[in-house]
Amino acid sequence: xxxxxxxxxxxxxxxxxxxxxxxxxxxxxxxxxxxxxxxxxxxxxxxxxxxxxxxxxxxxxxxxxxxxxxxxxxxxxxxxxxxxxxxxxxxxxxxxxxxxxxxxxxxxxxxxxxxxxxxxxxxxxxxxxxxxxxxxxxxxxxxxxxxxxxxxxxxxxxxxxxxxxxxxxxxxxxxxxxxxxxxxxxxxxxxxxxxxxxxxxxxxxxxxxxxxxxxxxxxxxxxxxxxxxxxxxxxxxxxxxxxxxxxxxxxxxxxxxxxxxxxxxxxxxxxxxxxxxxxxxxxxxxxxxxxxxxxxxxxxxxxxxxxxxxxxxxxxxxxxxxxxxxxxxxxxxxxxxxxxxxxxxxxxxxxxxxxxxxxxxxxxxxxxxxxxxxxxxxxxxxxxxxxxxxxxxxxxxxxxxxxxxxxxxxxxxxxxxxxxxxxx
Length: 424
Fold this sequence. Notes:
Membrane topology: Multi-pass membrane protein
CATH topology of the largest domain: Growth Hormone, Chain: A
Number of domains: 2
Pfam families: MFS_1
InterPro entries: MFS, MFS_dom, MFS_trans_sf, Sugar_transporter_CS
Structural class: mainly alpha
Keywords: Membrane, Transmembrane, Transmembrane helix
CATH architecture of the largest domain: Up-down Bundle
Largest sheet: none
Number of helices: 19
Distance between the termini: 49 Å
CATH superfamily of the largest domain: MFS general substrate transporter like domains
Radius of gyration: 21 Å
Number of strands: 0
Organism: Duganella aceris
Helix content: over 70%
């Protein structure tokens, strides 16, 4: 058997969906993927500079946590607003506006002179952060053909892990070249880079044909759907179940990623968490999880894929909080941690795109995903409060397990949409 020829055939089959894309579809794919990576890069800068800010400004851990919570809440509001805007002014224009918005306020963070100024700048940055995901997910979901939508949207989602990795590299570079008091500011100032990318989007990315057809229909009939139609009787059940699905995914993610480092450092006394090796394992695992889930969401279907990765995430939470682990084991577990909790999200954009009709797709997708984010952001707070009466590890397990359980139940009740053609 010619193994070389067999390998080539398998490789061509693996990437055949991308080779089949038109020039317009490829430009849209790369613009959404790079935009999402830049969004992640600007967003993750804060996590790296918090120790420096605590030392320089005397911030408490509560102050640092407040910045993160405010960012999540404003990003939830921004995501819904961007969804409504994308139905009104277009997916591409909304994507441009959200990128410019989060780039501007990321740069503004670099000029902050106090905790209050940073809190305001970061909070305003959140509007663009959440809005970019909504606009980009709708755009790529509408452009790609039905049979490849899950793979394409999932590959775009994988841009988050790339942006996370780039932010870690830039952090290492800036703090090796500059003193800490200048390094953290320079990191935020690099947040201007995404604004330059808008020039490419403006020149080379067009609105999806299904959206253009919908706008022509509106112009002919002078009837435009209101964003409140996602709460109309025939859509309300779908909207609420979609919120439960995204609440489970994001509540579980925040429960695990927010409190696990504290639990492992304070109760398990592990030192590997402070090394770049552990972070690298989590980031690589996240990227691989996004990619694998992207293909499985088309192969298995949206619902089975959600259930598979939600179950895997529950098992990871159990392993971290219940099993005796050493530094070596913890380093190894970084990969499946990133793989499972990130892979959960890979099929989300395609699924939400398919759940809502074109006339209210932005409103429905923006609201359901970002309401889930807003509710999910409360899980770390509830774990912190519960840990006063129960062990921290137990609290993490309870809330993470509950979150992913809710996600599985929501997935079971929602319709399977894999292969669905979008119609206006």
